């Protein structure tokens, strides 16, 4: 079996129409990695696939276009910290919350730098982390503009739906 350009285009269309953020496909020594993200990184082909691609294979490693996901929202904070005491500094902060239950990762792979840290500037399309659900990696966009002032969720931590991941000053 050999992938044609039309096959790859159809796979991209299917990914774009789905709710998944990533697709990894291997067949006949050809590896196809597709990711829907902010465009900061592109899919990379494995070194083992390079010889087969040089031999005239028509498969390409491409990135799927980013499409906004309305279910991943940021909401204003309640203005109260964990102990119940309110502070004027906390009242102005926005929260980036988990759009689903799963394992939260701050970096694209183990040992890599985190997507963002305290002091990082974020925009709505900025990917702030990944949530793994049943071996599927789902990118988490900021959906707000501002500066990260607190990292709440830890790398590798199980997060609940709507759990606060980051606090951001608009």
Automatic annotation (TrEMBL):
Gene Ontology annotations for the cellular component aspect, listed alphabetically: acetyl-CoA carboxylase complex
- What does the record give under GO molecular function? acetyl-CoA carboxylase activity
Per the record, the GO terms for biological process are: fatty acid biosynthetic process
UniProt keyword Lipid biosynthesis, yes or no: yes
Matching Pfam families, A to Z?
Answer: Biotin_lipoyl
Q: Which residues cross the membrane?
A: none
Q: Where is the composition biased (Polar residues)?
A: 41-70
| UniProt feature, compositional bias: Low complexity | 74-91
**Sequence segments annotated as region (Disordered):** 41-91
Q: Which InterPro entries match?
A: ACC_Biotin_Carrier, AcCoA_biotinCC, Biotin_lipoyl, Single_hybrid_motif
Q: What does the UniProt keyword field contain?
A: Biotin, Fatty acid biosynthesis, Fatty acid metabolism, Lipid biosynthesis, Lipid metabolism
Q: Enumerate the PROSITE patterns for this protein.
A: BIOTINYL_LIPOYL (PS50968)
Q: Does the keyword Lipid biosynthesis feature in the UniProt annotation?
A: yes
> Matching Gene3D superfamilies, A to Z?
2.40.50.100
- Biological pathway: Lipid metabolism; fatty acid biosynthesis
Q: Which residues form the Lipoyl-binding domain?
A: 93-169
CDD domains for this protein: biotinyl_domain (cd06850)
Function, please?
A: This protein is a component of the acetyl coenzyme A carboxylase complex; first, biotin carboxylase catalyzes the carboxylation of the carrier protein and then the transcarboxylase transfers the carboxyl group to form malonyl-CoA.
Q: What is this protein called?
A: Biotin carboxyl carrier protein of acetyl-CoA carboxylase
